[in-house]
Write a structure and sequence with these properties.
This protein has 490 residues and is an alpha/beta fold. The protein has 2 domains: 148 residues, Rossmann fold; 247 residues, TIM Barrel (Alpha-Beta Barrel). 42% of the residues lie in helices and 16% in strands. It has 19 helices and 17 strands. The strands form 4 sheets. A 7-stranded mixed beta sheet has the order 3-1-4-5-6-7-8, sandwiched between helices. It has a 6-stranded parallel beta sheet with strand order 10-13-14-15-16-17. Strands 2-9 form a two-stranded antiparallel ribbon. Helix 13 links the parallel strand 16 and strand 17. The longest helix has 16 residues. The protein starts with a strand and ends with a helix. The structure holds cobalamin. Cobalamin binds next to helix 2, strand 4, strand 5, helix 5 and helix 7. The site of cobalamin (B12) has 38 residues, from helix 2, strand 4, strand 5, helix 5 and helix 7.
């Protein structure tokens, strides 16, 4: 089969947890999910391409031209719940012009498998992982198997949508994502220091149960240290990658595994730096090993500066632990970023002020203040659906809902107040003279300076006080000239 995977651009949504300016400057990331799907299909003997239309700034018409050249037998798209309608719009256009089957996958399929493929233009869905489903589906399309026997497939039969249950997967058995199909030179994230840059996932799942997180209480499914380091080495040697952001929900969940990864990485002596996400409850030993192995940034889930809120959201950490870990991290020379929630259960004006004051005291290198949201599969969402009898996200996928702010009955603050407070939190954090001075002194290149200055000015002057739709939204791109060059090259 000839399989074309398309990563479409997406607009800013009012129902998002981040402010528009944060979303704009977040960065250009490789479509990693599609790169996994591509390598799985290729291992099964199929011919695959990935078109990263978002990064390459390709219009639907330009993608159509490329697809006509590639002549695919089937198209594939990754779907998240929040950007579902953007992707659907692309599917409709390409399906009308190419008339080939469309298969979709991605996190949203786990939540709404039937609803996702209820749209006329979508033929198949992959409920969980592509590992077994895609090779089996392609066998079925080549007449070697029945659709009924494809594990984890959603399909249509006589006006009915059938969901074949998925089979658990071992993450270790996945091939490396097909980065050779991606424009690796074009990716960067807001705090990136080096190029080429990429993202990696080395484990799936998280056994914890935070109220606001969709990954809570899912089976921890790690790859072996040797496999992780082999993928890093591949990135380094084959794609000139010099900086990696590890996107695992909690990279440091298994201390022994991380220490072994660090030991193996040190042996390789690669001139490469990396970042990861971690819980706060880790110790100095692991941090020291990480620093020696090239870790330069850690994104910590801090959430609040108020112990009562940390307890309510089931975070399982203390204010004292946060202070200690951030101090050790910074003392070791690793940059510390904090993820915070605004509008968490029992949040008030006073607690937001306390959280921002706490963030300032920690003197973090970067901060992200997200609006607490009832995202699908989170305990907060389950409670909301139970309480109101309505599932906004389900209706959104079915095309019956518009993009709007969701209710937050767990706090006395209104959505409008939360928007204003989130904006205020960023401005208040970043306009301190000490922070500005440090930011300027730490800048390593003109490009970095420009990116940070634009983001700062946009936050001050362009971010609306109350979030609203932005139909013309385009993510910030640092290197438009390189994009044009790359577009011509391929
Ligand atoms: C890397 C990443 C990104 C990257 C690249 C996009 C991507 N997914 O490739 C960037 C930064 C661009 C990104 C953007 C966004 N992301 Co993101 N992202 C991730 C992350 C951290 C890793 C993805 C990954 O490689 N996982 C490992 C692989 C093995 O698993 P997988 O992604 O589930 O893919 C498997 C299956 O789902 C399936 N599959 C996936 N896609 C497809 C497509 C086809 C055709 C088929 C057949 C199968 C298939 O097969 C894959 C291999 O088995 C996940 C969290 C996570 N740890 O998974 C979030 C995650 C997928 N992202 C999420 C979100 C919310 C977003 C954004 C909306 C954030 C934002 N506000 O901008 C955008 C939307 C992008 C879009 N087009 O819709 C959510 C989705 C939740 C939901 N209910 O849909 C997740 C789960 C994070 C989270 N917990 O909130 N993301």
């Amino acid at each position: 089969m000839r399989f074309a995977l398309i990563f479409n651009p997406f607009k800013y949504k009012v129902h998002e947890e981040n402010l528009r300016i944060v979303q704009k400057y977040f960065g250009m990331f490789p479509p990693l999910s599609l790169a996994w799907v591509a390598s799985i299909a290729r291992e099964a003997g199929h011919t695959v391409t990935i078109i990263d239309a978002r990064t390459l700034r390709l219009s639907k018409e330009e993608v159509l031209c490329r697809l006509k050249e590639f002549k695919p037998d089937i198209l594939g798209f990754m779907m998240t719940t929040y950007m579902f309608l953007d992707t659907l719009e692309w599917i409709k256009y390409l399906k009308k012009n190419l008339n080939v089957p469309v298969v979709v996958g991605g996190y949203n399929l786990r939540v709404y498998p039937k609803e996702s493929i209820s749209h006329l233009e979508i033929d198949f869905g992959v409920v969980e992982h592509a590992l077994d489903t895609i090779p089996q589906l392609f066998d079925a399309l080549e007449g070697k198997r029945r659709l009924e026997d494809v594990v984890g497939l959603v399909y249509k039969k006589n006006n009915e949508i059938i969901v074949n249950p998925p089979k658990p997967v071992v993450f270790e058995s996945f091939p490396f994502p097909a980065r050779d199909l991606l424009p690796n030179e074009l990716y960067a994230e807001f705090p990136t220091e080096r190029k080429n840059f990429t993202v990696m996932v080395t484990s799936l799942g998280c056994p914890r149960g935070c109220l606001f997180c969709e990954a809570g209480r899912t089976i921890y499914n790690p790859r072996k240290p040797e496999t992780v380091v082999k993928e890093i080495e591949d990135c380094y040697k084959k794609y000139n990658i010099r900086e990696i952001d590890i996107f695992d929900y909690d990279f440091t969940a298994d201390k022994k595994r991380v220490i072994e990864i660090c030991r193996l990485l040190k042996e390789k002596k690669l001139d490469l730096i990396w970042a990861c996400r971690s819980r706060i409850d880790i110790d100095k030993e692991i941090l020291k090993e990480m620093k020696e192995a090239g870790c330069r940034r850690i994104y910590y889930g801090i959430e609040s500066g108020v112990q009562e809120i940390l307890d309510i959201v089931n975070k399982g950490i203390t204010i004292k632990q946060i202070r200690e870990t951030i101090k050790i991290t910074k003392d070791l020379g690793i940059k510390a970023l904090g993820f915070f929630l605004i509008g968490a259960p029992k949040e008030t004006y006073k607690t937001v002020k306390q959280t921002v004051k706490f963030a300032k005291e920690l003197n973090l290198d970067y901060v992200q203040f997200s609006k607490c949201l009832a995202k699908p599969l989170t305990p907060l969402w389950r409670q909301l659906v139970e309480r109101t009898g309505k599932d906004y996200w389900r209706d959104w996928i079915l095309g019956k809902e518009i993009d709007r702010n969701l209710p937050r009955p767990w706090t006395e603050l209104t959505n409008e107040q939360i928007d204003r407070l989130a904006r205020w939190a960023y401005i208040s954090y970043h306009t301190r003279p000490s922070f500005l001075l440090r930011a300027v002194l730490n800048v390593r290149s003109f490009k970095e300076f420009k990116r940070k200055l634009f983001a700062y000015l946009d936050m001050l002057f362009s971010q609306e006080k109350v979030s609203c739709e932005d139909k013309n939204f385009v993510a910030y791109c640092e290197e438009p000239k390189k994009v044009i060059f790359y577009k011509r090259k391929i």
